[in-house]
Write a structure and sequence with these properties.
The chain has about 500 residues and is α/β, with parallel strands linked by helices. The protein folds into two domains: about 30-260 and about 460-480, Aldehyde Dehydrogenase, Chain A, domain 1 (3-Layer(aba) Sandwich); about 265-450, Aldehyde Dehydrogenase, Chain A, domain 2. It is about 35% helix and about 20% strand. The chain contains 15 helices and 21 strands. The chain has a seven-stranded mixed sheet, with helices on both faces. Strands 9-8-7-10-11-19 form a six-stranded mixed sheet, sandwiched between helices. About 55% of the residues are buried.
Length: about 500
């Protein structure tokens, strides 16, 4: 670790918000303390939005959509700005890495690896400008000569992101929205607003037209004003299922569009033909990423009853070897939990697991050698009842539950016995068996012999894990409204448009 890396990353205007293409002063002096979870020391302070501030940034986005040039540009013209945003974020990757580690406790080797990729997301969506079917030609079936299915921007988008991985989720929400022609308000989390500030700085440098990108940091009460505001056409949210339910209900009141990427209690099924040591190593490695603060974490592990004890021993041994400590240290494999209340929450679930009779196989406390920071030991519970609290509720920490099953059918039944359906995995040497099980598990992603999530295909959940998909081409559709246009004659403008012919 070097003193330079430990120093706060460059955030130019944490005391302001970004709207109308400029940095605006907040309406009050209210601030949030952003705390480094590894040291429990103040990292920096960020402005706290009040109702007047939220009103202003929403008005900026509405004005830009209704009267600005952005929605009226071609997709190719908007794509040029997306490329500039992507390149700007790539140049700022080191700043973003430092922010992620110092705000959220992400291991620096991981944050450095991923932050260089976030800019590529904007460049990917820029590449869709030429071949995505924004306009399709159909043969009219009820009169008329020319039928068009036109996909137009949904309008003003409120993007609400969580504290565990803010920049990546900002990218997967704003890049497709911007290509579609939407204007956006990014509501950054009070615990980790730095990535959003850097994004605004990059947008300013790229010359994005005023009001297209707006940044504000707010608590839950003020954030609800964004969700309620009739000037906001769509909300895209990543966070807990409890908050997602609230947002969904508020959007339903005014029939606003919403995408909800919510919680998970994802299952890994270990079938009898797969090596237990290999499975244990794979699952312990994935569980320590972001200290388990990952909605798609494989936190329920289902294994045959006759192999349960052997697997628990292998998993406990593998997980207990995890090097927990300073996110900037080269040897660290797992950093702290991001915030104090999250550590308290995880400790409460560990206590509940013991109270309800699960066997604590390893971990369960705070690392003895770390006297400060929001650290928790990698924890494994054995012989867990699938109906218990620790098997049914999202813990959002490095806590794994091993659940015995009597057969393959029983394992799938246990995997599906949850309100969630975000991620899953099947460990087997037989790919046909893996596919058969994958089709029966009700989850948005099923990995084979590993934890996997692939935003390059699509990401999202079944059941109460959410509504809609993010990533790749699927992630563009939620920011578009479809319009049917039927014309009596073919206009000359059609020759200038990139139109896909749909056979009928």
């Amino acid at each position: 670790m070097t003193a330079e890396l430990r120093a706060p990353a460059e955030v130019q205007h944490p005391d302001r918000f970004f709207a109308d293409g400029i940095w605006i002063e907040p309406s009050t002096n209210a601030v949030f303390d952003v705390v480094d979870p590894a040291t429990e020391e103040l990292y920096y302070r960020a402005a706290s939005a009040q109702p007047a501030d939220m009103d202003r940034v929403v008005g900026s986005a509405r004005q830009a959509f209704d009267h600005g040039p952005w929605p009226r540009m071609s997709h190719a013209e908007r794509a040029e700005y997306l490329v500039a945003l992507g390149e700007g974020l790539i140049r700022r990757a080191r700043d973003l890495s430092r922010i992620w580690s110092s705000e959220s406790g992400a291991v620096y080797s991981l944050s450095a690896q991923y932050c260089g990729f976030f800019g590529e997301i904007y460049k990917y969506y820029a590449g869709l400008a030429g071949d995505f079917p924004f306009v399709e030609r159909h043969r009219p079936t009820a009169g008329g000569s020319v039928g068009l299915l036109v996909r137009e921007p949904v309008g003003v988008v409120g993007a609400i992101v969580p504290w565990n991985s803010a920049m990546g989720l900002i990218a997967y929400k704003t890049a497709p929205a911007l290509l579609a022609g939407c204007t956006v308000v990014v509501k950054s989390p009070p615990e980790a607003p730095g990535s959003a500030y850097v994004f605004a700085e990059v947008a300013e440098e790229a010359g994005v037209p005023p009001g297209v990108i707006n940044i504000v940091t707010a608590d839950r009460e003020v954030s609800e004003l964004l969700v309620r505001d009739p000037r906001v056409d769509k909300i895209t949210f990543t966070g807990s299922t409890a908050v997602g339910r609230r947002i969904g209900a508020l959007c339903a009141e005014r029939v606003a569009r919403c995408n909800l990427e919510l919680g998970g209690k994802s299952a890994a099924l270990i079938l009898d033909d797969f090596d237990l040591g290999t499975a244990a190593n794979a699952l312990s490695a994935s569980a320590r990423v972001l200290a388990g603060q990952n909605c798609s974490n494989l936190s329920r592990i289902i294994v045959s009853r006759h192999r349960h004890d052997e697997f628990v021993e292998a998993l406990s041994e593998s997980f207990a070897k995890t090097e927990v400590g300073d996110p900037y240290a080269a040897s660290t494999e797992m950093g702290p939990l991001s915030i104090r209340r999250q550590r308290d929450r995880v400790e409460g679930y560990i206590a509940k697991g013991i109270e309800q009779g699960a066997m604590l196989a390893t971990g369960g406390g705070r690392p003895e050698q770390l006297d400060r920071g929001y650290y928790i030991e990698p924890t494994v519970f054995a012989d867990v009842d699938n109906g218990s609290v620790i098997a049914q509720e999202e813990i959002f920490g490095p806590v794994l539950s091993v659940i015995p099953a009597d057969s393959e059918d029983h394992a799938i039944e246990l995997a599906n016995d949850t309100i969630y359906g975000l991620n899953s995995a099947v460990f087997t040497d037989d790919p046909d068996r893996a596919l058969r099980c994958a089709r029966r598990v009700r989850a948005g992603t099923v990995g084979h012999n590993a934890y996997r999530q692939d935003f390059g295909i699509a990401f999202g959940g079944f059941k109460q894990s959410g509504i809609g998909r993010e990533g790749a081409r699927e992630g563009l559709f939620p920011f578009l409204e479809t319009k049917t246009v039927v014309l009596d004659a073919e206009p000359s403008a059609l020759r200038m448009m990139n139109i896909r012919q749909v056979s009928q």
